[in-house]
Specification:
Layout lengths: L3 H7 L6 H5 L4 H22 L15 E11 L2 E10 L19 H10 L4 H12 L5 H9 L1 H9 L6 E16 L2 E13 L5 E9 L4 H13 L4 E7 L5 H8 L4 E4 L1 H9 L4 H15 L4 H15 L6 H7 L1 H4 L7 H8 L2 H14 L8 H14 L10 H12 L9
Parallel strand pairs: 3-6, 6-7
Antiparallel strand pairs: 1-2, 3-4, 4-5
Helix pairs in contact: 4-17, 8-9, 11-12, 16-17
């Protein structure tokens, strides 16, 4: 415990903030002193006797001075003295041989990278704020070290059952074979049995297609998922079949937001405000049969001017109406991919200044760090308690919370 008397001693010459935080300030001096003291304690443990202890005579190994070393810390460069033993068998644990960056420095780089800063921007930031001249190669090595963590995360075991999984894709510019291509990053975002959000994985492909989604769903199966109660998809042709091929009992729900977006693509700007109430009346209906009546009413009013919209809804109707089987209070949580859209918005903010990525791995690395470190909120939704009761009735023993 740090006593008041010790603090008074440390601050006896304090006059201005620089005395505490400056290049030669107390914080940096304390870090240096603590590191050197800890390394000395490690050597004592290694030798088995204290410095100056007669027990060390004739032991076959003893202290042999120090070597100088400069390490990078979040407070800048610090020159430290590393104790040595005559036998050369001492291996420091706090700062291992060959390591030049103190714990926390790599985290600083990763935090900046996760916020969308490029290698050159990170280099400039570290120079400006901490007075550290760090090479781009070092920054790249630190961020590349995350790739093993990404691979482990991407192959980690998953829960046996997920009540809801949202499937979506966002576009990222990636250099491939000398050309910058607009690739699809596939995202699977789930609600687990406790109502907590969890990104199950990220996958990159040239285009979004049902064939690739089948590959994604199969991968989830091999990672331990035995059942998905509800899968919310974006209306891509063949997507529901790709899911039910692997999980035949899954209830597939078309995302209404995507359906509205696809419908409005046919509507002129001057009519969009006028047409929305008629579209909302369909998915806000009290029940599926009433929704069908509202669709017929929509076609009677707008079908002649926009004949393509009605068929869009009718072709998807089987996967439009499943959410009507649940109480109005939790329907919105099921029929829209709002949560995954919010995730994608957060990711787009981070990647928007990048222009393009040099390869797929660079994109995955940043997106993974963004999910992990950029402060995305994964709190349980307020509707989940009500949803649990609905799911327990609707899905019986398939719902993992049913027996609780």
């Amino acid at each position: 415990m740090i006593t008041q008397e010790l603090l008074d001693q440390l601050l006896v010459n304090y006059e201005k903030p620089e005395d505490l935080l400056g290049e030669e300030g107390l914080f940096k001096q304390l870090k240096k002193a603590l590191i050197e003291r800890a390394l000395g304690a490690e050597l004592t443990e290694h030798l088995g006797y204290e410095k100056g202890d007669p027990a060390g005579r004739g032991s076959g190994n003893n202290r042999n001075g120090v070597s100088s070393k400069t390490i990078l810390t979040s407070d800048g460069e610090i020159d430290i003295s590393v104790p040595r033993d005559r036998a050369g068998s001492f291996e420091p644990q706090l700062i291992p041989k060959g390591q030049t960056r103190f714990e926390g420095f790599d985290d600083k780089i990763l935090s900046l990278y996760a916020r969308g800063m490029t290698v050159r921007e990170i280099q400039g930031h570290l120079t400006e704020i901490y007075g550290i001249d760090v090479s781009p190669d070092l920054i790249s090595r630190v961020t590349d070290a995350v790739l093993d963590e990404v691979r482990e995360w991407q192959s980690r075991p998953l829960d046996l059952v997920y009540p809801i999984v949202f499937f979506d894709a966002l576009r990222v510019k990636i250099r491939d074979e000398g050309l910058v291509k607009n690739k699809a990053v596939y995202v699977a975002l789930a609600f687990n049995a406790n109502g907590e959000k969890e990104v199950l994985g990220l996958w990159i492909e040239q285009t979004e297609g049902a064939k690739f989604w089948l590959k994604v769903v199969n991968e989830l199966k091999t990672r331990g998922v035995n059942d998905i109660l509800i899968a919310v998809v974006d209306g891509l042709k063949g997507f529901p079949e790709a899911i039910t091929t692997v999980f035949p009992q899954t209830l597939v729900q078309t995302c209404i937001v995507h359906l509205i977006r696809n419908s409005l693509a046919f509507v002129s700007w001057k009519d969009r405000k006028a047409i929305m109430p008629s579209l909302k009346a369909i998915y806000r209906a009290e029940a599926a049969d009433i929704a069908l009546t509202r669709l017929e009413e929509f076609e009677a009013i707008w079908g002649k001017r926009y004949p393509a919209i009605g068929p869009i809804w009718r072709r998807a109707w089987e996967h439009v109406v499943p959410f009507f089987g649940f109480a109005p209070s939790i329907r919105k949580m099921i029929y829209t991919t709002n949560c995954v859209e919010a995730l994608n918005r957060s990711l787009r903010k981070i990647i928007k200044t990048r222009g393009s990525f040099p390869n797929d791995e660079a994109a995955l690395k940043l997106l993974y760090l963004a999910i992990k470190n950029a402060g995305l909120r994964w709190r349980r939704g307020i509707e989940w308690t009500a949803a649990m009761g609905q799911f327990a009735i609707q899905f019986g023993d398939r719902f993992p919370g049913a027996a609780r």
